[in-house]
Write a structure and sequence with these properties.
- The chain has 194 residues and is of the alpha+beta class.
- It has 4 helices and 6 strands; from the N terminus they run H-H-H-H-E-E-E-E-E-E.
- The strands form 2 sheets. It has a 3-stranded antiparallel sheet with strand order 1-4-5. It has a 3-stranded mixed sheet with strand order 2-6-3, with no helix packed on it.
- The longest helix has 89 residues, at 21-109.
């Protein structure tokens, strides 16, 4: 091979391996386009991720609110159920108080010869059972005799002069009053010193 042929082949191989200037520009453009596309895809992914995070936060907030509302609802229902039970219990006990009043009258007015009879002992047992039942339901008698008149606890039906007793003091209990817990179930019916 002659030197000229060899040089021609070298030139030819150089031109085959090296892109032409126009091809070189196209390759750079494609790289730029690919980079921009990747950047846009990355930005789209970040935007989608941000939107999904916002939606997840919104769902979490809604779930937490619903959970709190359910807990509040359960508490409210429990309070209402307890209030209803206490009201019903109070109504039933209030209906039983006249029976207790009659027992009180009978037990306080019986003579010694009647108290010794067997049937009177049975009645006394029933009376104690009724009192124990009321104690189980947290029903207590309002202490009124000798106490200062309290409008929330006492119902004054009469005033009378009582020597040596301070005005406004309860001097006689006509009908016993009762509390259920801290609540007045029935006020005491009393006579107050003038």
């Amino acid at each position: 091979m002659s030197k000229n042929q060899h040089d021609d082949e070298l030139d030819k191989s150089d031109t085959e391996h090296k892109p032409a200037p126009a091809q070189e520009g196209e390759a750079e453009t494609e790289q730029v386009i690919d980079a921009v596309s990747a950047f846009e895809e990355e930005r789209d992914v970040e935007q989608i991720l941000a939107e999904l995070e916002a939606q997840a936060a919104e769902y979490l907030d809604g779930w937490q609110r619903a959970r709190a509302e359910l807990a509040n609802y359960k508490k409210r229902m429990e309070r209402e159920r307890e209030t209803l039970a206490n009201t019903l219990r109070g109504d039933v006990i209030l209906a039983l108080l006249p029976v207790l009043d009659d027992f009180d009258l009978a037990m306080n007015s019986q003579s010694d010869d009647i108290a010794s009879l067997e049937w009177a002992g049975g009645i006394a047992l029933i009376y104690r059972k009724l009192q124990n039942l009321l104690t189980e339901f947290n029903v207590t008698e309002i202490e009124a005799l000798g106490q200062p008149f309290a409008p929330m606890m006492h119902d004054a039906v009469m005033q009378r002069e009582e020597p040596g007793v301070e005005s406004g003091t309860v001097v006689e209990v006509i009908r016993k009053g009762y509390l259920i817990g801290e609540k007045v179930l029935r006020p005491s019916m009393v006579v107050v010193a003038a």
